[in-house]
Specification:
The complex is a heterodimer of chains A (318) and B (309). Chain A is mainly beta and 318 residues long. Chain A contains four helices and 18 strands. Chain A folds into two domains: 114 residues, Rieske Iron-sulfur Protein (3-layer Sandwich); 165 residues, Naphthalene 1,2-dioxygenase Alpha Subunit, Chain A, domain 1. Classes of the chains: A mainly beta (318), B alpha+beta (309).
């Protein structure tokens, strides 16, 4: 896929590409024991692996010896990972624990480890520009894995935009009507609590069949890159939205969808239609996100949602 | 993701073609050193390399240009340049502008190869390439050729030679070879000694390498069989290299035996290349690598390499 820079280039964004916080770097089910995966996030090369004992770990990718990429050809041995170039072995904290052909391990032989947790079927890593430890935790999302809710259906996009463009959506009441086709511009309530930003929107929408129903959307952001969207209306739905910066221009966005069918097979068709619709809605947002500028001081009108509150909350992460 | 490399492309002699790829009167387009170039053979039989773009209005002479005597004619307005790159004739003008010059790169055609001297500041070559005696000799085969385009740089491919440890872990040799490296001005010499398990006998093989800058190396393998490889890696741009290997084996009792040996040798080295490539193509270059007491003479190679940047 050819990547093309946004016309505003380096001038596009008045805020940094890599905020501090917990970010999805993988899916628990997709990383088997002893698997090794190269990743490109935060403008860096990384290596994600699972130890024989089942722990997920992530290091900076380049071996401190002669620079080989551990994600390409690296091998897990027990709780450590071995470089394919000269077989230096690195333990769980990133320190070199073995060099098969040397008598002494140089003290600088270290790989930088990233804090990693596994929750909600996701592997999350903590990024901090100054290397500080995490100041918050990501919650357990109750709908995931609960009976009556469909297993997570995951979609990925590589989006030419940064996190703020996309996540700001949650306070953007007017766009629900003009981009997503709700019948009314939602009423919006906003609640801020430390690293958590919660919105509630109520609106009218058209159900399949033509009748008008009330819809309700609750978004909860836990830090800059982990958002749950709970929808009531035609059928209960959950979106788990995690976005991870790839580099200065691109973000890896994943939406994980689940729908509440209550285990009722008659509702499968409806569930699928709702999922298809939700995916389509993301694709309605996409061309706007990929091409927009990001104003430091947007010119808002009195009917716009509370962008100010969102941006003030966002600033704690950088 | 783009990998930073602090030095840019090294200066030196680099292969741009085999002699037998360029007939008299033929003109070819090249893309090396991040530049568009043309390669042609004039009526005096000499191979020449010029910048591709005509100084007049910028046409690429490789597309539709032709060889005229020892130089070329541009297809756009028929300006003719001589063997030194000076404009010798403009069919429709009275006066030739003094700045009507194409840069002519130094070329040395030797050992069946067409070599170009690349210098970032376009200075002339401070040394000559050696003759490879095996190429001239009737006791040795003709070249068996293989080439690769690798997302890497001269520095990385060269460091391989001073890295005996990686033979064990990347190429799975039985033991780590012992290696010595030393500098003779622009030449780096490396000697590697390693055990070969051939049937039941423990034997020793040796590899003697001479690198004349980053772009021309001769590796001689002795032990079980005598084989020689001429290696030339030429930067395409600052992220890719075109690596050519020209293999020769000492002739055996029959042409079939020689052919069999040649193919086996090519196959073995090619296999090793395919093991090195994922590392070369994904690694970064540390200006300050963390070396250990068992490592080979990589520091000697790096010291030698500095003169070419």
């Amino acid at each position: 896929m050819e990547t093309q820079r946004h016309p505003l280039g380096d001038e596009r964004y008045p805020f940094p590409a890599y905020p501090n916080g917990w970010f999805r770097v993988g899916y628990s089910g997709a990383l088997e024991p002893e698997a090794v995966e190269p990743l490109s996030y935060f403008g860096r090369e990384l290596v994600l692996f699972r130890t024989a004992g089942g722990e997920a770990r992530m290091f900076d990718a380049y071996c401190p010896h002669l620079g080989a990429h551990l994600g390409v050809g690296g091998v897990v041995e027990g709780e450590s990972i071995r470089c394919p170039f000269h077989a230096w072995r690195f333990g769980s904290e990133g320190s070199c624990v073995e060099i098969p052909y040397a008598s002494r391990i140089p003290p600088l032989a270290k790989l930088r480890p990233w804090p990693v947790v596994e929750k909600n079927g996701l592997i999350l890593a903590h990024h901090h520009a100054d290397g500080k430890p995490p100041s918050y935790e990501v919650p357990e999302v109750p709908q995931i894995g609960r009976s009556g809710w469909t297993p997570l259906f995951i979609k990925h996009w590589k989006v030419r935009a940064r996190w703020l463009d996309m996540n700001e959506n949650c306070v953007d009441s007017a766009h629900f009507k003009y981009v997503h086709g709700t019948l009314t511009i939602p009423d919006l309530e906003v609640d801020v609590d430390g690293h958590v930003f919660r919105t509630e929107s109520r609106f009218d929408q058209k159900a399949p069949g033509g009748r008008t129903v009330q819809g309700r959307l609750v978004t909860t952001d836990y830090g800059p890159a982990f958002q749950t969207v709970e929808i009531d209306g035609i059928i209960g739905a959950l979106l788990l939205n995690t976005s991870t910066p790839i580099d200065e221009d691109y973000t890896d966005v994943s939406f994980a969808y689940s729908v509440e069918t209550g285990g009722d097979p008659a509702k499968q068709g409806l569930a699928q239609a709702v999922l298809d619709d939700l995916v389509e809605q993301f694709e309605n947002d996409l061309p706007i996100w990929e091409n927009k500028a990001c104003w430091k001081r947007p010119n808002l009108c009195e009917a716009d949602g509370d962008f100010g509150k969102y941006r003030k909350w966002m600033s704690q992460f950088f | 993701m783009k990998r930073e490399f602090p030095f840019g492309m090294p200066n030196g002699w680099f292969q741009v073609a085999y002699s037998d790829e360029l007939a008299s009167g033929e003109i070819k387009k090249l893309e090396y050193f991040g530049m568009a170039l043309i390669l042609f053979r004039g009526s005096d039989g000499r191979a020449r390399v010029f910048d591709a773009f005509c100084p007049h209005l910028g046409a690429h002479i490789g597309f539709g240009g032709s060889v005229v005597e020892n130089g070329v004619r541009c297809p756009f307005h028929a300006w003719e340049f001589d063997g030194d790159g000076r404009c010798a004739r403009i069919p429709y003008a009275k006066r030739i502008p003094p700045r009507a010059l194409i840069h002519a790169w130094p070329v040395d055609e030797k050992n069946g190869l067409i070599m170009v001297y690349y210098d970032k500041q376009k200075r002339p070559p401070p040394y000559e390439l050696p003759v490879v005696p095996e190429f001239e000799s009737d006791e040795w085969s003709d070249y068996y050729r293989r080439d690769w385009i690798i997302r890497s740089r001269n520095q990385e491919l060269a460091e391989n030679i001073a890295d005996p440890v990686h033979f064990k872990f990347v190429h799975r040799t039985a033991a780590i070879p012992t290696a010595k490296a030393w500098i003779e001005d622009h030449v780096l010499r490396v000697n590697m000694d390693y055990p070969i398990v051939a049937g039941e006998q423990a034997q020793h093989g040796a590899i003697d390498v001479s690198c004349y800058g980053f772009g021309f190396g001769i590796s001689r393998f002795t032990g079980i069989v005598d084989t020689t490889v001429v290696i030339s890696g030429t930067a395409i741009d600052d992220e890719h290299i075109h690596n050519r290997l020209s293999f020769m084996v000492k002739k055996r009792e029959s042409p079939e035996a020689t052919e069999g040996l040649g193919r086996a040798f090519v196959s073995e080295i090619s296999r090793q290349f395919s093991e090195d490539m994922p590392i070369w193509e994904n690694k970064t270059h540390w200006e300050r690598p963390v070396l250990c007491d068992g490592d080979g003479p990589i520091s000697v190679l790096r010291k030698w390499g500095q003169q070419f940047y």
